[in-house]
Amino acid sequence: MQKIQTGLRHFAEAVAATMMALMFLTFILQIVVRYTARLAWLPERFPLLDPTGYGWTLEFCLMLWVWLVFWGNAFVVRERDHVTFDILFYAVRPAVRRWFIIISGIAICVGFLLSVEPTLSKFYILRLKKTATLSTVFGDWIRMRDIYSIYIVFLIAVALRYAWAAYRAFRFGVEEPKHDAVEETTL
Predict the structure, then answer these.
(1) pLDDT above 70 for 92
(2) Are residues 97 and 22 in the same domain?
(3) Are 109 and 167 contained in the same domain?
(4) Which long-range CB contacts under 8 A does 18-27 form with residues at least 24 apart?
(5) Total domain count for the chain?
(6) 12, 95: one domain
(7) Which residues span the domain enclosing 110?
(8) pLDDT single digits (tens) 14-71
């Protein structure tokens, strides 16, 4: 089971890294085209560098950004990487902490799963709407629904994550906090 989790984690990180690399390369392409656009002779010699063919780069970067944010938060960012306000959480007994995790996990899970259907019904309209410029590169099949479909994946993944946390707390209790060792210095 641990090998499968590690493999899935590496896959998720590789997908996120690929999206970041594509976004960076597209950004570099935007810079090259922007600074060579004033050179009238360049598109004549190298038609590939005609600046009128690169309107899609901005929309492509924005699409990758949306996907990167939701993909990363669904599959890459670990629980310990989040900023938490846990003064009250650690001030109570472990039994109360356990119920904090169970109740909040169930509430988040139910809330996210209940929001899937209304989101899908809003996506129904987006199936008709095309992107402004991405069809010039990827063809006419990409719709706005496809660009924002990662949000549904995010909702389900986070709901499952919190359901699993609630199950673990219910079944096994809570772990004691692991505080980083901080060296105290005296003046």
Answers:
(1) yes
(2) no
(3) yes
(4) 19/64, 19/67, 19/68, 19/71, 20/68, 22/60, 22/64, 23/61, 23/64, 23/65, 23/68, 26/57, 26/60, 26/61, 26/64, 27/57, 27/61
(5) 2
(6) no
(7) 82-176
(8) 999 999 999 999 999 999 888 887 788 887 888 777 778 888 999 999 999 999 999 9
